[in-house]
Each structure stands twice: as structure tokens, then as C-alpha cells.
Design a protein that fits this description.
Layout (H helix, E strand, L loop, with lengths): L4 E6 L3 E7 L2 H6 L7 E3 L2 H9 L6 E6 L1 H12 L3 E4 L6 H13 L2 E2 L11 E7 L5 E6 L13 H5 L1 E7 L8 H14 L3 E5 L3 H6 L1 H8 L3 E7 H8 L4 H9 L2 E7 L5 E4 L4 E4 L12 H13 L5 H15 L9 H13 L1
Parallel strand pairs: 1-5, 1-9, 2-7, 3-8, 5-6, 9-10, 10-11, 11-12
Antiparallel strand pairs: 2-4, 7-8, 12-13, 13-14
Helix pairs in contact: 3-11, 6-8, 9-10, 11-12, 12-13
Amino acid sequence: MSRQYDIYGIGNALVDMEFEVSDVFLDAMNVEKGLMTLVNKERQFELLEHMRTERSTRAGGGSAANTVVANAFFGGSSFYSCLVANDELGDFYVQELDKAGVDTNLHTLRPAGVTGSCLVMVTPDAERTMNTFLGISEQFSVDDLDKEALQRSSFVYSEGYLVTSATARPAVVRAMNLAREHGVKTAVSFSDPSMVKYFRLGLEEILGSGVDLLFCNREEALLWGECRTLAKAVEELKRVAGAFVITLGAQGALVFDGLAMHEIDSFPVLPVDTNGAGDMFAGAFLYGITHGMTYAEAGRFASLAASRVVMVFGPRLAPDQYKQTLAEFVRS
């Protein structure tokens, strides 16, 4: 079967509201720094009421969405399955996907409800802390999968955040099984240390008999391996993934291609905002391996792309910056 899409993404559909805050603010508001925490709408509103900042952005977000958008802007083809409501934020979200050239299941009658939103708080050290109200996105289910688009894709990619939903988790399991049945490769991101720490059984259900490609960071890898060394974590990851990437922040990344391990250097920059760095890495990496790059080459390209997104405020680059980054990599 011909492949219409490089990536078929599954994830939460959240409108990101990003603000610069101080560590004092996080302490005063009892917000746990550096993690994604699920909250209700009232808690989000309480935090917003206390914001005192001049710098903020609003963008279509969600971890897997950032990844498929990056792939699309680099020149790849993407489809994104998600769920938004028939409200103003939902309209905004659909427009954001359209601008990126990402096909979606959302061009149908959308249900009544409230579209999910993520309050992203960035401290002076560029660390991002997220308080997320899932809204209607929490109701994502098997019915929201586009099985034909999935079968015409090279990769199915899911964010780990979906493990928290009683309806989304079975949808991801179904998507992974459909992919295996139709020769589509499978990829998963652990997304956040809290997913590994508190929802391990659900992640094991999603991984099933194993995935072709897994993305995680150092902390997530160590939590998964229930160990203190990356060497041990690597061996544990090999049990559930044919290939994997461990991002190491300023230290670069480790890429295992199924046979050999590759150490990927970072591109030293002065970070402004780390929100979206892992999503960008995954999007660039998936673009690379679906467009003729080796895993090592894709790792270097992804490292460059991640270095560029941490230099800006917000989880995405301007549209022309994606192509500029790709051109810079090709010239190097």
C-alpha cells in the first residue's frame, strides 16, 4: 500500500497559554516545577488571575501535535487525530493545524463542550512547568481514529500523555495493533516523568509486544528502568523498543538504531524556553528517518532543531524557521 502520510499522530489537542513566571510565583501558588500536572478549569483560572507578566503567547499545542506540525513544516506529510469542542478555542486549534498543512479528523461536526488548554509557566532558567486542563480531549476514543489514514502512514506516533484517559488509552492500543496488522511502524513518547512514575501499567499496555521507536528523556529512562544508571536503563528500553532515543538536554542525546548506539552532540545555545524541545526533537527525527537519513543523521538534525526551538518563547518555530533549520543542517 502506498504511504500518504509520513506520520499519523495521536494526542491531546490543547491550546497552549504560555507565560513567563518566577520561581517565587511557583512556590507561592504551590505549583510543582518542571512537571505536567493535570488540573481543573478552576485551578487554571486561579493561576491566571495571579499572573503578573507582560510576555505571553497562545498557540495550538499538545505534545504529539507539536511533533506532527514540525514534521509538516520541515516538508513531511502529517495527519493528526485528536478531539476539540465546537467552541472558540476549538476553532483556533483547527486553524492552527490547517496553517501547518496537517490533515486531521476535526473537519466534521465537533461536539459541544470545552476545548482543552495548557497553562505553560516558564521560569528564568528556561524550565517549563505545565498545568493542564484536558477538557473534551480527555474523551478521545477509538471513534476518533481515522483508520484509513492510519493504514496509509509510515509511522503511527502517540504521546504518553494519553495514558491518563480511560478512553484514550484503549484508542492508542487499538491504533498500535492496527499499525502492526498493516505494516505501519509504531512510535511512542513517554512525554513526561510523571507518566512513567504514576501510569506505568498503562504505558506497558500501550507498548504491548513492543514498539519500533521510543522517545524519552534521561529522567523518564531511569524511571522506566527503575535504576540509577543510563547503561541499565538502555538495557531495559531494549526490551520494549526496537530502536529508541534518550534526550539528554544540553548533553545531546543517545540514539539506538536497533544495532548500534550513537552519541549525538548538542548545539550549545542560550535557552529561553525549553517547552517543546522534546516534541521538536521527535518531529525532526521522524522527518529525518522517513526522508532518507540514517538514525545517526536524524539524531544530529533533531538535536539542531531542538536547539533552535529553545531559543524562542513558545513550543514552535515560525514557519520559515523550520526550512531554514533544515537548510542549515544540509549545508553542514
